[in-house]
Amino acid sequence: MTKANRMILDQFKLNGKVAIVTGASRGLGQGMALGLAEAGADVALVASTATEEAARKIRVLGRRVCQIQANLLDPGAVPRIVDAAVKELGGIDILVNNAGIIRRAPLLEFTETDWDEVIQVNQKSLFFLSQAAAVQMVKQGRGGKIINIASMLSFQGGIRVPSYTASKSAVMGLTRILANELAPHGINVNAIAPGYMQTDNTAALRADAKRNAEILARIPAGRWGSPEDLQGAAVFLASAASDYMHGYTIAVDGGWLAR
Known about the structure:
With about 260 residues, the chain is of the alpha/beta class. It has a single domain, classed as NAD(P)-binding Rossmann-like Domain (Rossmann fold), CATH 3.40.50.720. Helices cover about 40% and strands about 15% of the residues. The chain is built from eight helices and seven strands; from the N terminus they run βαβαβαβαβαβαααβ. It has a seven-stranded parallel beta sheet with strand order 3-2-1-4-5-6-7, sandwiched between helices. Strand 2, helix 2 and strand 3 form a beta-alpha-beta unit. Helix 4 runs parallel beside helix 5 (about 160-180). It is globular.
């Protein structure tokens, strides 16, 4: 059956697809991994910490799952991730570059270590994992989907997070150049920019009563986002429904950027 003859909801199905999700032990990564599994994908969970909770939930859905412990601060982790996913699940169709870290400090006190570690995880590992996945996708000859996780700070400057802002601005740019070069191979590269979400990265902000109130006052939806709020966008960008989208960053932000 050709794509033109399929019902629209069928185009969102991911049956028979294999997805790699980094930073999948909790929060946004686990939420997106579960969304992809619910849509039919088998999932390779990548994290530096235990992923057993996410793996158990995926198995309950009847999907295959592979757990890969890897710390993206280590440049040598990238090829091992791709090799393990291919060995365990038979290939790669979808890559979600979700893993990310943040360091907060005033600009005048920000350290080189905090700069380098954030750039390594959020920017450098994203590029080289995308490259490794794309090599496998081209080899397979059936196209693929790469989904990068950007940020509100891909659009804005922020405060006290210079390396995070630099890395997430780079994510938007890398999404575009990866899309330009990989589109001829049938590989779509797009990004999701989450708004202010309830994750470990924002725990300090939510615990600060004044800052929390300021943030909520700026969000038209009137609440922090949840991991489940990203599932629809992730499934869409991983599916045939987004086959003509290349190089775009979708904001899932409760209206933050519209204010």
